[in-house]
Protein backbone atom coordinates (compact mmCIF):
# COMPACT_ATOMS: atom_id res chain seq x y z
CA UNK A 1 0.00 0.00 0.00
CA UNK A 2 1.16 3.48 -0.88
CA UNK A 3 1.52 6.11 1.84
CA UNK A 4 0.93 9.51 0.31
CA UNK A 5 1.91 12.84 1.79
CA UNK A 6 -1.76 13.32 2.56
CA UNK A 7 -5.06 11.49 2.46
CA UNK A 8 -8.45 13.16 2.32
CA UNK A 9 -10.71 12.77 5.32
CA UNK A 10 -14.12 11.30 4.52
CA UNK A 11 -17.10 11.32 6.90
CA UNK A 12 -19.22 8.13 7.25
CA UNK A 13 -20.98 7.52 3.92
CA UNK A 14 -24.49 7.39 5.48
CA UNK A 15 -23.97 10.75 7.09
CA UNK A 16 -23.14 12.40 3.78
CA UNK A 17 -26.06 10.60 2.18
CA UNK A 18 -28.42 12.00 4.84
CA UNK A 19 -26.99 15.48 4.40
CA UNK A 20 -27.73 15.50 0.66
CA UNK A 21 -31.19 13.90 0.91
CA UNK A 22 -32.89 17.29 1.07
CA UNK A 23 -31.44 18.14 -2.34
CA UNK A 24 -33.74 15.49 -3.85
CA UNK A 25 -36.68 17.11 -2.09
CA UNK A 26 -36.09 20.76 -2.95
CA UNK A 27 -34.10 20.27 -6.21
CA UNK A 28 -31.86 23.15 -5.11
CA UNK A 29 -28.42 22.09 -6.34
CA UNK A 30 -26.49 25.34 -6.42
CA UNK A 31 -26.83 29.17 -6.39
CA UNK A 32 -26.69 30.10 -2.72
CA UNK A 33 -28.78 27.17 -1.52
CA UNK A 34 -29.68 26.31 2.09
CA UNK A 35 -26.63 24.07 2.68
CA UNK A 36 -24.24 26.75 1.37
CA UNK A 37 -25.81 29.32 3.68
CA UNK A 38 -25.75 26.94 6.64
CA UNK A 39 -22.08 26.22 6.01
CA UNK A 40 -21.26 29.93 5.76
CA UNK A 41 -23.00 30.59 9.11
CA UNK A 42 -21.22 27.70 10.81
CA UNK A 43 -17.85 28.74 9.37
CA UNK A 44 -18.34 32.30 10.64
CA UNK A 45 -19.11 30.90 14.10
CA UNK A 46 -16.19 28.49 14.06
CA UNK A 47 -13.67 31.08 12.85
CA UNK A 48 -15.13 33.99 14.81
CA UNK A 49 -15.36 36.27 11.76
CA UNK A 50 -18.15 38.60 10.69
CA UNK A 51 -18.03 38.38 6.89
CA UNK A 52 -17.35 35.23 4.92
CA UNK A 53 -18.24 33.97 1.45
CA UNK A 54 -18.01 30.32 0.43
CA UNK A 55 -16.52 29.96 -3.06
CA UNK A 56 -15.43 27.27 -5.53
CA UNK A 57 -11.75 27.20 -4.55
CA UNK A 58 -8.93 29.03 -2.86
CA UNK A 59 -7.45 30.30 -6.12
CA UNK A 60 -10.53 32.12 -7.35
CA UNK A 61 -10.85 33.52 -3.81
CA UNK A 62 -7.47 35.24 -4.34
CA UNK A 63 -8.40 36.44 -7.82
CA UNK A 64 -11.68 37.96 -6.67
CA UNK A 65 -9.91 39.55 -3.70
CA UNK A 66 -7.43 41.32 -6.00
CA UNK A 67 -10.25 42.36 -8.33
CA UNK A 68 -12.57 43.65 -5.62
CA UNK A 69 -9.83 45.74 -3.99
CA UNK A 70 -9.14 47.18 -7.45
CA UNK A 71 -5.42 46.49 -7.16
CA UNK A 72 -3.17 47.74 -9.93
CA UNK A 73 0.53 48.18 -10.64
CA UNK A 74 2.58 46.04 -8.27
CA UNK A 75 1.76 43.71 -5.39
CA UNK A 76 4.44 42.79 -2.90
CA UNK A 77 4.31 39.06 -2.31
CA UNK A 78 6.12 36.04 -0.97
CA UNK A 79 8.22 33.67 -3.10
CA UNK A 80 7.62 30.78 -0.68
CA UNK A 81 4.08 29.57 -1.33
CA UNK A 82 2.04 27.55 -3.77
CA UNK A 83 2.04 28.86 -7.37
CA UNK A 84 -1.59 30.04 -7.03
CA UNK A 85 -0.42 32.92 -4.81
CA UNK A 86 1.65 34.30 -7.70
CA UNK A 87 -0.54 33.28 -10.63
CA UNK A 88 -3.61 34.96 -9.12
CA UNK A 89 -1.65 38.25 -9.21
CA UNK A 90 -0.49 37.67 -12.80
CA UNK A 91 -4.02 36.64 -13.81
CA UNK A 92 -5.24 40.10 -12.78
CA UNK A 93 -2.46 41.74 -14.84
CA UNK A 94 -0.63 43.00 -11.80
CA UNK A 95 3.12 42.61 -11.31
CA UNK A 96 4.25 40.47 -8.38
CA UNK A 97 7.25 41.92 -6.54
CA UNK A 98 8.94 39.21 -4.49
CA UNK A 99 10.27 39.97 -1.03
CA UNK A 100 12.41 37.30 0.60
CA UNK A 101 11.32 35.23 3.61
CA UNK A 102 12.47 34.77 7.21
CA UNK A 103 14.81 31.80 7.70
CA UNK A 104 12.86 30.49 10.71
CA UNK A 105 9.14 30.91 9.94
CA UNK A 106 9.44 30.84 6.10
CA UNK A 107 6.95 33.72 6.01
CA UNK A 108 7.59 36.97 4.14
CA UNK A 109 10.24 39.03 5.96
CA UNK A 110 8.31 42.11 7.06
CA UNK A 111 11.59 43.97 7.61
CA UNK A 112 12.31 43.83 3.86
CA UNK A 113 8.89 45.02 2.68
CA UNK A 114 9.38 48.80 2.90
CA UNK A 115 12.43 48.86 0.65
CA UNK A 116 10.40 47.10 -2.07
CA UNK A 117 7.59 49.66 -2.06
CA UNK A 118 7.44 51.94 -5.13
CA UNK A 119 4.85 54.47 -6.30
CA UNK A 120 3.17 51.60 -8.17
CA UNK A 121 2.69 49.34 -5.12
CA UNK A 122 -0.97 48.78 -4.30
CA UNK A 123 -0.94 45.88 -1.84
CA UNK A 124 0.86 43.17 0.08
CA UNK A 125 -0.23 39.58 -0.57
CA UNK A 126 1.45 37.15 1.80
CA UNK A 127 0.94 33.53 2.74
CA UNK A 128 0.73 32.27 6.31
CA UNK A 129 3.13 29.44 5.47
CA UNK A 130 2.21 25.99 6.86
CA UNK A 131 -0.46 27.81 8.92
CA UNK A 132 2.02 29.95 10.89
CA UNK A 133 1.00 33.61 11.03
CA UNK A 134 3.03 36.27 9.21
CA UNK A 135 4.17 39.23 11.28
CA UNK A 136 0.64 40.62 11.02
CA UNK A 137 1.28 43.54 13.38
CA UNK A 138 4.30 44.86 11.46
CA UNK A 139 2.65 44.31 8.08
CA UNK A 140 -0.45 46.19 9.26
CA UNK A 141 1.71 49.17 10.32
CA UNK A 142 3.53 49.26 6.98
CA UNK A 143 0.25 49.02 5.08
CA UNK A 144 -1.25 51.92 7.02
CA UNK A 145 1.82 54.10 6.61
CA UNK A 146 1.95 53.57 2.83
CA UNK A 147 -1.79 53.24 2.22
CA UNK A 148 -1.61 49.66 0.96
CA UNK A 149 -4.16 46.87 1.11
CA UNK A 150 -3.29 43.57 2.75
CA UNK A 151 -4.44 40.17 1.51
CA UNK A 152 -3.43 36.97 3.28
CA UNK A 153 -3.41 33.65 1.49
CA UNK A 154 -4.59 31.60 4.46
CA UNK A 155 -4.95 28.31 2.56
CA UNK A 156 -3.11 26.49 5.38
CA UNK A 157 -4.67 28.24 8.35
CA UNK A 158 -8.00 26.60 9.03
CA UNK A 159 -8.17 25.88 12.77
CA UNK A 160 -4.92 27.72 13.60
CA UNK A 161 -5.18 30.61 16.05
CA UNK A 162 -3.03 33.58 17.03
CA UNK A 163 -3.68 35.19 20.43
CA UNK A 164 -7.05 33.44 20.54
CA UNK A 165 -8.19 34.64 17.10
CA UNK A 166 -8.29 32.65 13.89
CA UNK A 167 -5.17 33.29 11.79
CA UNK A 168 -7.72 34.00 9.04
CA UNK A 169 -9.00 37.10 10.82
CA UNK A 170 -6.10 39.39 9.79
CA UNK A 171 -5.74 41.63 6.73
CA UNK A 172 -8.29 43.50 4.62
CA UNK A 173 -9.04 40.14 3.05
CA UNK A 174 -8.00 36.61 3.99
CA UNK A 175 -8.65 33.63 1.77
CA UNK A 176 -8.73 29.94 2.57
CA UNK A 177 -8.77 26.76 0.52
CA UNK A 178 -11.06 23.85 1.31
CA UNK A 179 -9.44 21.57 -1.25
CA UNK A 180 -9.56 17.82 -0.53
CA UNK A 181 -5.93 17.87 0.68
CA UNK A 182 -6.41 20.54 3.36
CA UNK A 183 -7.10 20.11 7.09
CA UNK A 184 -10.76 21.04 6.55
CA UNK A 185 -12.16 20.33 3.09
CA UNK A 186 -15.33 20.44 1.03
CA UNK A 187 -13.85 18.37 -1.85
CA UNK A 188 -13.17 21.58 -3.79
CA UNK A 189 -13.90 24.89 -2.16
CA UNK A 190 -12.61 27.92 -0.37
CA UNK A 191 -13.67 31.12 1.30
CA UNK A 192 -13.06 34.84 1.36
CA UNK A 193 -13.08 36.67 4.66
CA UNK A 194 -13.17 40.47 4.90
CA UNK A 195 -13.80 43.13 7.52
CA UNK A 196 -15.62 45.74 5.46
CA UNK A 197 -19.35 45.22 4.79
CA UNK A 198 -19.37 47.10 1.49
CA UNK A 199 -16.45 45.03 0.28
CA UNK A 200 -18.41 41.89 1.17
CA UNK A 201 -21.29 43.00 -1.07
CA UNK A 202 -18.88 43.68 -3.92
CA UNK A 203 -17.21 40.29 -3.46
CA UNK A 204 -20.62 38.60 -3.46
CA UNK A 205 -21.44 40.26 -6.79
CA UNK A 206 -18.14 39.14 -8.26
CA UNK A 207 -18.92 35.62 -7.10
CA UNK A 208 -22.16 35.56 -9.05
CA UNK A 209 -21.56 37.02 -12.55
CA UNK A 210 -21.89 40.61 -11.37
CA UNK A 211 -25.62 40.69 -11.36
CA UNK A 212 -28.40 41.10 -8.89
CA UNK A 213 -31.69 39.57 -9.96
CA UNK A 214 -32.07 40.85 -13.54
CA UNK A 215 -29.79 43.81 -13.10
CA UNK A 216 -26.48 43.13 -14.90
CA UNK A 217 -24.53 46.11 -13.60
CA UNK A 218 -20.92 44.93 -13.35
CA UNK A 219 -18.50 42.34 -14.73
CA UNK A 220 -18.29 39.28 -12.52
CA UNK A 221 -17.21 35.70 -12.65
CA UNK A 222 -18.75 32.45 -11.45
CA UNK A 223 -17.24 31.46 -8.10
CA UNK A 224 -20.33 29.91 -6.51
CA UNK A 225 -20.06 26.53 -4.89
CA UNK A 226 -22.67 23.77 -4.86
CA UNK A 227 -24.94 22.17 -2.26
CA UNK A 228 -23.04 18.88 -2.62
CA UNK A 229 -19.76 20.55 -1.70
CA UNK A 230 -21.35 22.42 1.18
CA UNK A 231 -22.82 19.13 2.45
CA UNK A 232 -19.32 17.64 2.65
CA UNK A 233 -18.21 20.70 4.60
CA UNK A 234 -21.12 20.36 7.02
CA UNK A 235 -20.16 16.72 7.67
CA UNK A 236 -16.47 17.53 8.14
CA UNK A 237 -16.68 20.72 10.20
CA UNK A 238 -17.77 19.08 13.50
CA UNK A 239 -14.80 16.72 13.14
CA UNK A 240 -12.09 19.35 12.68
CA UNK A 241 -11.10 19.37 16.36
CA UNK A 242 -10.70 15.60 16.32
CA UNK A 243 -8.78 15.69 13.00
CA UNK A 244 -6.39 18.31 14.38
CA UNK A 245 -5.90 16.30 17.58
CA UNK A 246 -4.97 13.19 15.58
CA UNK A 247 -2.56 15.17 13.42
CA UNK A 248 -1.02 16.60 16.59
CA UNK A 249 -0.32 13.13 18.00
CA UNK A 250 1.31 12.06 14.72
CA UNK A 251 3.37 15.26 14.50
CA UNK A 252 4.60 14.86 18.07
CA UNK A 253 5.65 11.30 17.27
CA UNK A 254 7.75 12.59 14.34
CA UNK A 255 9.16 15.28 16.67
CA UNK A 256 10.35 12.64 19.09
CA UNK A 257 11.77 10.25 16.47
CA UNK A 258 13.53 12.36 13.84
CA UNK A 259 17.22 13.19 14.10
CA UNK A 260 17.22 16.95 14.69
CA UNK A 261 20.97 17.21 14.57
CA UNK A 262 20.68 16.91 10.79
CA UNK A 263 17.21 18.31 10.09
CA UNK A 264 15.48 21.61 10.68
CA UNK A 265 11.88 22.45 11.32
CA UNK A 266 10.01 25.77 11.10
CA UNK A 267 10.06 27.87 14.25
CA UNK A 268 7.93 26.11 16.87
CA UNK A 269 7.46 28.70 19.58
CA UNK A 270 5.58 31.65 18.13
CA UNK A 271 4.04 33.48 21.07
CA UNK A 272 0.24 33.20 21.15
CA UNK A 273 0.13 30.74 18.25
CA UNK A 274 -1.82 27.47 18.28
CA UNK A 275 -0.97 25.23 15.34
CA UNK A 276 -3.47 23.20 13.29
CA UNK A 277 -0.85 20.59 12.29
CA UNK A 278 -1.58 21.23 8.64
CA UNK A 279 1.80 19.95 7.41
CA UNK A 280 4.90 18.21 8.63
CA UNK A 281 7.71 19.99 6.80
CA UNK A 282 11.37 19.24 7.44
CA UNK A 283 14.38 21.05 5.99
CA UNK A 284 17.20 18.84 4.74
CA UNK A 285 20.82 19.98 4.69
CA UNK A 286 20.88 20.10 0.86
CA UNK A 287 18.82 19.34 -2.23
CA UNK A 288 21.01 16.27 -2.78
CA UNK A 289 19.99 14.96 0.67
CA UNK A 290 16.37 15.73 -0.07
CA UNK A 291 16.51 13.66 -3.26
CA UNK A 292 18.20 10.78 -1.44
CA UNK A 293 15.60 10.77 1.34
CA UNK A 294 12.79 10.96 -1.24
CA UNK A 295 14.28 8.02 -3.15
CA UNK A 296 14.73 5.91 0.01
CA UNK A 297 11.09 6.54 1.02
CA UNK A 298 9.83 5.85 -2.49
CA UNK A 299 11.41 2.39 -2.41
CA UNK A 300 9.07 1.66 0.52
CA UNK A 301 6.08 3.17 -1.35
CA UNK A 302 6.12 6.30 0.81
CA UNK A 303 5.62 9.52 -1.13
CA UNK A 304 6.58 12.76 0.58
CA UNK A 305 6.12 16.02 -1.30
CA UNK A 306 8.35 18.97 -2.08
CA UNK A 307 6.32 21.80 -0.70
CA UNK A 308 7.02 24.54 -1.71
CA UNK A 309 9.11 24.05 -4.79
CA UNK A 310 10.19 25.94 -6.84
CA UNK A 311 10.68 29.28 -5.16
CA UNK A 312 8.04 31.38 -6.95
CA UNK A 313 10.47 34.15 -7.95
CA UNK A 314 12.02 31.50 -10.24
CA UNK A 315 8.81 30.58 -12.07
CA UNK A 316 9.71 30.25 -15.76
CA UNK A 317 6.90 32.46 -17.09
CA UNK A 318 7.63 35.60 -15.06
CA UNK A 319 9.99 37.28 -17.51
CA UNK A 320 12.00 38.95 -14.72
CA UNK A 321 14.01 37.85 -11.72
CA UNK A 322 13.93 39.25 -8.15
CA UNK A 323 16.65 37.40 -6.21
CA UNK A 324 15.33 35.83 -2.97
CA UNK A 325 18.28 33.84 -1.60
CA UNK A 326 16.58 32.55 1.56
CA UNK A 327 13.48 31.32 -0.25
CA UNK A 328 15.58 29.76 -3.01
CA UNK A 329 17.64 27.91 -0.42
CA UNK A 330 14.60 26.75 1.57
CA UNK A 331 12.59 25.62 -1.43
CA UNK A 332 15.24 23.12 -2.52
CA UNK A 333 15.53 21.74 1.05
CA UNK A 334 11.87 21.59 2.16
CA UNK A 335 10.13 18.24 2.23
CA UNK A 336 6.68 17.55 3.67
CA UNK A 337 6.40 14.13 5.28
CA UNK A 338 3.12 12.16 5.24
CA UNK A 339 0.58 13.51 7.72
CA UNK A 340 -3.11 12.68 7.86
CA UNK A 341 -5.72 11.85 10.49
CA UNK A 342 -5.42 8.04 10.37
CA UNK A 343 -1.75 7.64 9.51
CA UNK A 344 -0.58 4.69 11.62
CA UNK A 345 2.03 5.51 14.27
CA UNK A 346 3.90 2.39 13.14
CA UNK A 347 4.24 4.01 9.73
CA UNK A 348 5.47 7.21 11.37
CA UNK A 349 8.16 5.10 13.05
CA UNK A 350 9.06 3.47 9.75
CA UNK A 351 9.22 6.80 7.90
CA UNK A 352 11.35 8.34 10.66
CA UNK A 353 13.70 5.35 10.60
CA UNK A 354 14.20 5.60 6.83
CA UNK A 355 14.73 9.38 6.99
CA UNK A 356 17.24 9.14 9.84
CA UNK A 357 19.15 6.34 8.12
CA UNK A 358 19.52 8.42 4.97
CA UNK A 359 20.65 11.70 6.60
C1 LIG B 1 -3.97 24.90 -1.73
C2 LIG B 1 -3.41 26.27 -1.86
C3 LIG B 1 -3.99 27.23 -2.73
C4 LIG B 1 -5.03 26.88 -3.76
O1 LIG B 1 -6.23 26.50 -3.26
P1 LIG B 1 -7.26 25.71 -4.22
O2 LIG B 1 -8.47 25.59 -3.37
O3 LIG B 1 -6.64 24.41 -4.56
O4 LIG B 1 -7.48 26.57 -5.42
C5 LIG B 1 -3.50 28.53 -2.70
N1 LIG B 1 -2.48 28.87 -1.89
C6 LIG B 1 -1.88 27.99 -1.08
C7 LIG B 1 -0.78 28.45 -0.19
C8 LIG B 1 -2.31 26.65 -1.06
O5 LIG B 1 -1.69 25.76 -0.27
From TrEMBL:
Keywords: Aminotransferase, Pyridoxal phosphate, Transferase. GO terms for molecular function: pyridoxal phosphate binding; transaminase activity. The keyword Membrane does not apply. InterPro entries: DegT/StrS_aminotransferase, PyrdxlP-dep_Trfase, PyrdxlP-dep_Trfase_major. It comes from the Bacteria. The keyword Transferase applies. This is DegT/DnrJ/EryC1/StrS family aminotransferase.
Amino acid sequence: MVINVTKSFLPPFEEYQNKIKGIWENTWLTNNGPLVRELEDKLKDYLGVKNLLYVTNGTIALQIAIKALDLKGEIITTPFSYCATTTSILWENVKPVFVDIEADTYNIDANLIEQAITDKTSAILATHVYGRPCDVEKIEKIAQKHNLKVIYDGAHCFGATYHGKSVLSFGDIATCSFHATKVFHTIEGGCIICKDDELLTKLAHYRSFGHKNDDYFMIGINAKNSEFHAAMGLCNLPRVADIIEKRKIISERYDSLLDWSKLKQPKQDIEGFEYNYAYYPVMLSSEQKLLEVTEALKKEHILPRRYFYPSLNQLPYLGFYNPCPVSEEMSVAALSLPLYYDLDLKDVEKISRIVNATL
